[in-house]
Design brief:
30% of the residues lie in helices and 33% in strands. With 162 residues, it is an alpha+beta fold. Helix 1 runs antiparallel to helix 2.
């Protein structure tokens, strides 16, 4: 199960229970926060790098919760701690696209299928989206030594889960 699915399931239960909790995640942790008028506080924090309960912050006693919500939160924590991190929080992949003029004013969208960098020069090969090279955020950041970050951001398209 992916972290986004866990967040969606938690929020669906919270909405059904009409309680002021929201589940979310960032690059480092899964969070459940209380967002009612009494204050904004973290109820649960599970660092995504952790493998044991000791690393987690759990303050569910500070909020009145039904047993169903407590079991759901416990299940979410157990799932997060027991799931391989590459499956739980997969790194996003991107392809790079560009409009290329083929004949005269006719432009078609093509995708970078390979990139060779040598010193100050970079060479691209273009082709179909199916054959496009997939890039992670880290790999795209490394390309910024040759290209402005804005240009890379304009070219990148998220690859949907396969």
């Amino acid at each position: 199960m992916k972290i986004g699915e866990i967040v969606s399931k938690c929020n669906a239960v919270f909405d059904n229970e009409r309680i002021c909790l929201r589940a979310e995640f960032d690059e480092t942790s899964f969070l459940i926060k209380r967002t009612d008028v009494s204050g904004f506080s973290e109820v649960v924090e599970v660092p995504l790098a952790s493998n044991c309960l000791v690393d987690c912050t759990i303050n569910i006693w500070s909020v009145r919760l039904s047993n169903m919500v407590k079991y759901m939160i416990d299940g979410a924590i157990t799932t997060i701690l027991g799931t391989p991190k590459s499956t739980l929080y997969p790194e996003r992949k991107y392809v790079l696209s560009a409009m290329r003029y083929v004949e005269g004013p006719v432009a078609i969208k093509q995708y970078v299928t390979s990139l060779q960098a040598s010193g100050d020069y970079v060479t691209f090969d273009f082709g179909s989206k199916e054959n496009a090279e997939k890039w992670t955020d880290e790999e795209l950041r490394n390309l910024s030594q040759w290209f402005p970050r804005e240009a890379i951001d304009a070219m990148k398209e998220t690859v949907e889960d396969e």
